[in-house]
């Protein structure tokens, strides 16, 4: 038999075996057990994935929790069109990301748990950690992704090692670090439709035998692509932006046992706020209206958004006898302004016509973060010996001071905005924690882990409304403590197959919100939520490390779940607690080298969430009928005893699709002195409720989006063409329930070319 025939036969058998292994992973692993693979990947094998989910560098197979990683070419592909951090949505099982603010204020959901609150003071149950620094404010969480070594998505409560406000999970970013004694770097530039220009680069600079620096920059730019044809409108063009970010790191390693890493970073973004589009949904359905025109947005309101963030960190490490000590100090600040026409069109005031469609009232607002400061300090000590007992212990301190202004405008009013109405809220937060974790190797097959964390949170909150008369300040003081813990274990069924199980708790501190309105001025408050999660799974390496699979089943319960209820009639939110929320599901991650030319990955999840509170209800849309006397939307859930309300018992969590899936396939072949490659990626999610209540118009359609990148690599150069949302799928992915069927749509298709050079 020829070598070519042998290769074809081997590939065919491998594909069949991979399909069997996906359906029956444990049996396949035991039936095909072979000699241990070398730790370093050989040609035709998958790389070993090293993660720091437990604050140590470990093989992902040995960590007893559900983790997905993204790095390298996959990140390059997903960010080809200048995408912001929302490109990660659906790229990990059970992960969803969306925003009511565009490129700022991303909202993260893991296993259905997130927060739909649009207030700048909103907390989230998904933690975000960048270079070991927690990013608490929503304005910090959208920092551009560039020159990143790896992204880790940790699913399930992370209350022991990562602390407060992570009962759903943590997304962890690790930037590429300076390397002593090595000069290297890259530069990339891309051009796309809508006159998009995206540039990115990094350079590693050796300074001496003990010092090195790494400078990383990114600039993403696009012209406006949506036009306002209203005469005398404050803003005529929308959806262009200039988003610039930089990171400078300095590594100092004067001795073998000590190192210091300094990090300074900043972002400067200017662009458009999200376009809320009035009456774009057909009544009684979730379909866009006939002849929907993405390129047109007629409004009487102003629109602009600016965001500036800056920060610095210092990470010190001492390798001592039997232990390693860490000190991690971080500072972050943000300055934000976002103004938009929330009613999504032009209202019938000042003898002006109404449109598009029925708009019952004018709403034009700005949200401002004029003052923000965050400081964090962590001291951590961990064992570094070779014995069966390993441990970690530490202290953590967090401090944040913020001021938020909410301003009401009316662009058609004489003299506006000389005397705008606005509300002000301030919040000072301090939190400290002590934590410890122990790992014990019982045998060469069984490893056990356990951890505990004590947290003390204090918040001082005040809110005032300033109009013709002043209301407030209304003050809230909150003092909350919590003990979080986790216990887990890994059992090596075979040398290539690990079983794991984990029980963990999580905690989210009490939340306050101060959007005051009308005569019933009062801030809203939600008590702390506490989560308990149980999960079990299997992690395998298959076919001499040509494939890797991880599967997890989980179930969780959250007591006093913090939720955000809209008013149904005005631009307001209210915090509430549900007695209990439950969730359960299954997750799968799979990667494989199918042949010398083909590589693929496959991920998926099923999440079933349910609110359990027989007495909890919220207002729905529908208070204002349209010009035909028909309510604005079609409510389908169980009505409450009060008109225009709905009981929430039995409803799923909002923005929580039951089904999600992702798929990538990479083809490559040698051509001349280089390599031709094609990379396609797809992400699917099923329907979800946009709000706590259920309505036909506000149930998002299922969505399948795909991308393609085709290019050629030679020496240290690469040229590629790309397309994102290649099918140009367009639908409403969010809404404002103001009774005029106002929706927000996903990004249209983007195409372009990209050039990259490395050295």
Could you please describe the fold and organization of this structure?
The chain is mainly beta. 5% of the residues lie in helices and 54% in strands. The protein is built from three helices and 41 strands. The strands form nine sheets. The protein has a 22-stranded antiparallel β-barrel. Strands 3-8-9-6-7 form a five-stranded mixed sheet. A hairpin with a 4-residue loop joins strand 21 and strand 22 (446-466). The chain is globular and about 75 Å long. It starts with a helix and ends with a strand. The model is unreliable at 1-38 (pLDDT under 50).
> Segments where pLDDT lies below 50 for 5+ residues?
1-38
What share of residues are in beta strands?
over 45%
> Oligomeric status of the shown chains?
single chain
Annotation, overall tally of beta strands: 41
Q: Sheet with the most strands?
A: 22 strands, antiparallel, barrel
Distance between the termini: 43 Å
Helical fraction: under 10%
Structural class: mainly beta
Give the overall average pLDDT.
89
- In DSSP terms (H or I, runs of 4 or more residues), the helix count works out at 3
Which word captures the global form? Answer: globular
Radius of gyration (CA) equals 26 Å
Family: Belongs to the TonB-dependent receptor family.
Membrane topology: Multi-pass membrane protein
Motif (TonB box): 48-54
Domain TonB-dependent receptor-like beta-barrel: 290-726
